[in-house]
Amino acid sequence: MLKVIQQPEKVIIDVRNPEEVKSTGKIPSSINIPLNNVQNALATMSEEEFKKKFQRPKPSSSDELIFYCQSGRRSTEALDRALKLGYTKSKTYLGSWNDWSSRQQ
């Protein structure tokens, strides 16, 4: 994951709630799109709305999306939603935040 955060063409998406992100932190370069908002952000939000809200261009269906949450359950749900929307290069960070934070100790 350390290599991934240095690759701006890969979009790391934290699907936890904003309160969780505030209390624990986040993976550098990730954007926070809570699970309940993933479908709207990827399917219906305009390029302009997305950039305004997340300070980065809206990913295209050919971009690699990497989802994470606290332990992996919600990121798996987000992955399923993204794949159904045609984001075929999407995947999850299997260890999610629990793995990342333990490696930063």
TrEMBL record:
GO terms for molecular function: thiosulfate-cyanide sulfurtransferase activity. Gene3D superfamilies: Rhodanese-like domain. Residues 6-105 form the Rhodanese domain. The lineage of its organism: Eukaryota, Metazoa, Ecdysozoa, Arthropoda, Hexapoda. PANTHER family: THIOSULFATE SULFURTRANSFERASE RDL2, MITOCHONDRIAL-RELATED (PTHR44086), THIOSULFATE SULFURTRANSFERASE_RHODANESE-LIKE DOMAIN-CONTAINING PROTEIN 3 (PTHR44086:SF10). It comes from Danaus plexippus plexippus. It holds the Pfam family Rhodanese. One of its GO terms (cellular component) is mitochondrion. Transmembrane segments: none annotated. This is Rhodanese domain-containing protein.
